[in-house]
Amino acid sequence: MSDALQRLRHWKAKFAIILGSGLNAIVQDPIDSVEYAEFPALPKPRVPGHAGKFSLCEISGVRIIFAQGRVHLYEGYSAGEVTANVRMLANGGIEKLVVTNAAGALNQKFKTGDWMMINDHLNLTGTSPLIGGPEFLDLSDAYSPRLQKQFRDAAQKIGVFLHQGVYAAVIGPQYETAAEVRMLQDLGADVVGMSTVLEVILARALEMEVAGFSCIANSATGLSSTRLSHDEVLETGRKAAKDFSRVLGEALPRL
Length: 255
Ligand code: HPA
Prior knowledge:
alpha/beta
C-alpha cells in the first residue's frame, strides 16, 4: 500500500465530502492533508477553483476527509479518471460519501446561493464509470433516503433552507442554450451541472451510502438576462459555503 493511502486509512474516517467549484471555504482547520499528486492513479484538477488534495478534518467530533478538487469529463478525462477519487476514498476506508457541486438552476424558484439536496439524477453525460464492468447496478435509491432525512432534519433545526430535486449532468464545458434549458426542464431536472453523477454511480457500485448537494451558482443560461462567468460561480460558492458548514456541523454527529 502506498504511503499516501496509508495516511488516508490511518485517519480512520468513515465520511468523505467531495467539494465542488468555489466550495473550498467549507474546509476549516485541517489536521493534515495529502496532495493528489502523491497518488499516481489520481488525475490533477486543471480548472480554477479546484485545489488538488485530501484534507483530514474533524467536524463536531466526527472525522472526515474532504476531497478538494475533482476532474471533469470536459477537461478530456475519461469516466474512470473522473471517478478515481471515489475509488481512492473507498480504498481509504470511506463508507459514506457526500458529493457537492455548483450548479445552474432550471427550477425558477431557486435563487443564487441556495442549496438543493439531490434526491435523484439524470446522467446525460453519455458515459459511465461502470463501462467494461459488466455491472447492472440498481440505482433506485442512489441518494440514501436515510441520509436525506438526517440532513433535512439537521438543516431544519438550524434554519438553513434546503430545496430538494433532480440534478442533470451534462458533459459541458459550454453552458446550455435556451433550447437545452427548456429540454432539461421538460425532462424533470431542477438543476444542471457538469460533475457528480459519475462519482455517485461508482460510489454506489462500491456500496457507499451517498448524499448530494448542489449550491445554486446561477440561473441556467437562457433563463438569465446576464452573461454567466466562471468567476460568478466561484464567488457564489464562497458565500454559500458558510450555510453548508453549519448543516454539516449539525448533521454529522447524527449520521
Ligand atoms: N450549467 C451547467 N453547469 C453549471 C452551471 C450551469 O448553468 N453553473 C454551474 N455549473
